[in-house]
Amino acid sequence: xxxxxxxxxxxxxxxxxxxxxxxxxxxxxxxxxxxxxxxxxxxxxxxxxxxxxxxxxxxxxxxxxxxxxxxxxxxxxxxxxxxxxxxxxxxxxxxxxxxxxxxxxxxxxxxxxxxxxxxxxxxxxxxxxxxxxxxxxxxxxxxxxxxxxxxxxxxxxxxxxxxxxxxxxxxxxxxxxxxxxxxxxxxxxxx
Length: 191
Fold this sequence. Notes:
alpha/beta; five-stranded parallel sheet
């Protein structure tokens, strides 16, 4: 049976960079955030979001993700409400995706909120990516063209490394991509 290796870390830790390196080694990668974005465009999910958050977060029937983000990252109850809509749909999508990979010895399941969502329970091993806070903040500001305040707000909604690390099998410090790649190569030998 295909093993599930969870890959997580806080916003800006470099999960996508690390996932891309695993993928360059021929390992199938499931990126939960990308799947969630696609799923959020389905009629069924849009209907549930409208019911929970109203028409104001839509522009001509198209979900305004920025407006929705402002709501959920300012109110932990609203974030939980959104997660109860999205997480079951992502979990189902993942089951279908992995069912097509029966010959893969393992896959990488990348999710920023692996622990918060409970998805870690489905993983055989967990890799946590860490990076200095200031590096993470600057990466997200550049990537998302956002403000420091909004990055800190999003960080506050996620577990910190002190909570993730004790539950993880492997830790990759991603302050240098080259050093992180060396760590991945060591992990691959063990997997």
